[in-house]
């Protein structure tokens, strides 16, 4: 659930980051509905073989995304890792910078500019 009408921008970033990704459906609020017209009432997108659903919320609430839930991506190569890290970390916050932490060749944990938490790994 995104606040501020940014769900579509977030989905566009995610599908741009991955070769095997697509926005599958988008249903938008209309002029006669209880949220800002054109924002995302419900949408689905796919990254690799995983499907995600998202919405925009016009209701102000005291919570947002937390790193207690992360999207975990196993990268096929160091090049893929670097590409994803560079795109997803831009404007975001890195909690664990790219490094070999002993359990993988390279790992990073970050929140993207929309607050969504990602763990990137190369075995």
TrEMBL record:
Residues 1-120 form the PhnB-like domain. InterPro entries: 3_dmu_93_MTrfase, Glyas_Bleomycin-R_OHBP_Dase, PhnB-like. It comes from the Bacteria. Pfam families: 3-dmu-9_3-mt. This is 3-demethylubiquinone-9 3-methyltransferase (Glyoxalase superfamily). It comes from Geomicrobium sediminis.
């Amino acid at each position: 659930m995104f606040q501020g009408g940014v769900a579509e921008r977030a989905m566009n970033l995610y599908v741009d980051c991955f070769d095997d990704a697509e926005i599958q459906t988008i249903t938008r609020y209309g002029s006669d509905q209880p949220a800002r017209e054109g924002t995302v009432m419900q949408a689905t997108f796919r990254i690799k073989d995983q499907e995600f659903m998202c919405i925009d919320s016009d209701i102000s609430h005291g919570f947002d995304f937390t790193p207690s839930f992360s999207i975990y991506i196993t990268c096929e190569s160091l090049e893929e890792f670097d590409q994803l890290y560079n795109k997803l970390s831009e404007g975001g916050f890195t909690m664990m910078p790219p490094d070999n932490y002993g359990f993988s060749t390279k790992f990073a944990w970050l929140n993207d500019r929309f607050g969504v938490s990602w763990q990137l790994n190369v075995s």
